[in-house]
Amino acid sequence: MAILFLATFGYSLGVSAASDAQRIDEMEAQLQAQRALMEQQQRMLEKMSAELELLKANRTAASPPTKVEAGQSESGHVLSNTPVPGTAEPAMSVAAATKPEASKTPRLSAQVYGFAQADAIYDFKQVDPNWTDTLRVSTIPTQSGTYGNDGDFVFSVRQSRLGIKGDYGDDVTFLLEGELFGVGADEGQTTLRVRHAWATYRNLGMGQTWSNFMDIDIFPNTIDYWGPTGMVFYRNQQARYTFATGADEFAISIEDPSTALSVGRFRDTTVCNLPNPPEDCESSGSTAEDLFQSYNELPDLTGRYRKNGDFGHFQVAGIVRHLGYERLDTGAKGDEIGWGINTSASLKTFGQDRLKLQVAYGEGIGNYMNDGGLDIAPDSADISTASAETIPLLGISAYYDHYWNQQWSTSIGWSMTDLDTTAGQAPGEFKRGQIAQVNVLHHPTDNVMLGTEFLWGEREDVSGARGTDYRIQFSLKVNFDTGNLMQAR
């Protein structure tokens, strides 16, 4: 360094008086000095790098997490005692200098998400008291005064939701999500219930999530909980395999069958009046509704193809079902074959606007519909000859989501489900339902939604009796998302 400094300094002092030949000689001397310096620095870097790698290897060997053979690094690379040229210090070979292999166990990435939603609802009429939080058209009475006088005000938080989702790299994902809207045994209650419990490994998924027969992306931007009555809408337990098809999707699944069975007009028929009654029928006190139940020994089989593109997407799904039933007192059983086709599309129009359409048709697919589901019912009014029959069903849904700007939007649409009837059905059973909705939604800031929606619904029974209802709903919804909650092995 001193030589270089002096040479540079001397050159600077004599530059004005030196001849061209002298300047050339001096510049060549400087160039050689610079090269010598660079070579010296390169040797120093190599020595430091070798010492660092050796220290790392020694530290790993001192406390290995797993058994390591002598002369090997933890990753299996052979350690070399060959000294680095120009030094007396041993270093690892080129193979050992390779970066140790990363752990094959991917990191866990998870996030908590959900929303708190409060609904204020005024119903101009009345529905089943267990379903006042939403306009489910099958709960509309067809006889005036069934549930009391017209007019009902409701506050509800049942739509509030909480979930956790995450992955272990690209191969493993999981989802666990619940909400406060009680159904089934908890009908009418504000209580936690599972929406999704779903896990995937590569292309295989198992658990409970959206049925492979449905298209969740045609659900409109509405705030009423239940949504379009004629939409295929079902979260089901299943095992699904999705084939790799680029941007498109093709998937098959086997799903929990859960036959929706009705004994129709024979609901209150006592066991003694049924064909082939048991000898002790008089002591039983049972009715046909008590004795007949679904019998499911085979899962439902579904297939779905979805085409994605700049236009949006369209989808075709099919299902085949084995609809079984049995009689508890005699063990007699029977079955019917159900099938269905569901076609749907979400089409881009202007800006962020979407036209969302669905037409579904089949026999014995009522259990997969959003409302009014029935799969099989008696085919005759004569109990001595009555057997089971699948119910043909048509479901239609058509909605348009319009975005006025980034803060305001409107959804408007109509949906219908229409079931054929059998001679053995009861007059008061559900036959047809319709719903229409229009709203104005406002997002004043991130994660906050204020919305007002007007709804109209109609129910028609097998007998032809009809009932209508209309209501207005105001909602406040606040989303939350923790982002990446944790990263751990």
Largest sheet: 16 strands, antiparallel, barrel
Number of helices: 4
- How much strand? 35-45%
Please give the share of residues in helix: 10-25%
> Measured on Cα atoms, how large is the radius of gyration?
36 Å
Under CATH, the homologous superfamily of the largest domain reads Porin
State the order of secondary-structure elements, H for helix, E for strand: HHHEEEEEEEEHEEEEEEEEEEEEE
Low-confidence stretches: 1-18, 61-100
CATH class of the largest domain: Mainly Beta
Instruction: Kindly report the spatial arrangement of strands forming the biggest sheet.
Output: 1-3-4-5-6-7-8-10-11-12-13-16-17-18-19-20
Q: Could you name the CATH topology of the largest domain?
A: Porin
What is the average per-residue confidence, as pLDDT, rounded to a whole number?
86
Global geometry = elongated
CATH architecture of the largest domain: Beta Barrel
Give the termini distance in whole angstroms: 50 Å
Structural class, from secondary structure content? Answer: mainly beta
How many DSSP-defined strands? 21
- Counted up, domains total 2
